Please model this.
Amino acid sequence: MSPGIPPADYSLYIHVPFCRSFCDYCDFYSVLLPPGGEGNTLVERYINTLAADARWLFEKFPAATIPAIYIGGGTPSVLGAEGIRRLFGALGELPGLGRDRDRGQDREWTVEANPESLDGEFLHACREAGVNRLSLGVQSFSPRLRALVHRGGPVEVLERALDLALRFFPQSFSADIMAGLPGQDLKDLLDDIERLLIFHPAHVSLYALNLEEGTPLWDRAAELPPQDKAGRLWIRGRDALERSGYSQYEVSNFSLPGHESRHNLRYWGMKNWLALGPSGSGTLIDDRKGTGLRVNWSADLALWLAGDPARPGRLEQENLDRLSLMKESLLMGFRLSRGPDAPLFKRRFGLSPEEAIPKTLAKWRSRGLIRADPANSPAGQGPALTRKGLLFLNSFLVDIFEELDPD
Ligand code: SF4
Model:
């Protein structure tokens, strides 16, 4: 494989494809981790395969620097302290990924965890390896709502996990909350936010529940609140977060000043990232040509464990032509409150967002949903959806796609 892309900065996503149980709304790729020795053997094979893939990937795509690492899933915390130590050990052997603290490198390193599988020893192992950010899937404190979507664990477990997060990552933990769960009303959501904020997370993701085809919840769509009610719920949740000092910087993400997710900002900014693990997907961009290369690992654990990157179907590459990359850059960039990075867009595509989608911007500006004329914006900043405009992101994106691809 010869991507023709020079060594660049990229962030690294590592997918841990194991869960202890499945939540009804989830369509992330994962398998149930068997208990005991069988599970340990599977984890061992997973880590050995991951280490071999990582060596291969780093050789193919040498990194200039790796400003962010994100270990997500699935549920990374089901690896336990021993498993995550082995994973860190495998990564530590890679060029450029040793001990950050020893080299004083400023790298964001996030690990996702579920309260039910979190303990102090796991967090200690993370912190020891240089992890400096934790992302905790809380979703809701309500036992009734949790049971309805088969999200395990009693409330005491959530509070214990949040206590641990606060103790180990006091300035840098994030938590997810969901709006639009079956049976959820405004009081439920505001209670969830109030109870979460007692633990002072630096970052909160407030997700509107998305009904994904193929999930158990898909067949129970009638139980969900109507869309307009779910939308109003989310707005009240947003307002509660903002009143407490959290700024919305992306459609579903809020942070205290300086605590935005650097790794996710790279996705939304369409800046290079690579991925490891089954279903992991990376994107490398050639700024000079305005094209990209997508590198996808198979979402089939058995095939992925077969080990050889050259094995058919295990690793797929897809070229992103200029138009596809431009669309994706706008799709991702307009998720951000500050909009797409206009100077980077111009460097890649030879035109500004204003020049790429003038009709869409004029239409939405006339409705007052695009921020003021970019000439009046801070230096370098291009068009962005207003706070209200972000609520209509999907319709805005449809207009962009129709303008760029009228056929
Ligand atoms: S939401 Fe998280 S814990 Fe639940 S099934 Fe999906 S990946 Fe597993």
Q: What stands out?
A: The CA atoms of residues 18 and 33 lie 5 Å apart. Residues 36-60 form the longest helix (25 residues). The domain at 322-407 is CATH 1.10.10.920 (Arc Repressor Mutant, subunit A). The chain has two domains: 11-266, 322-407.
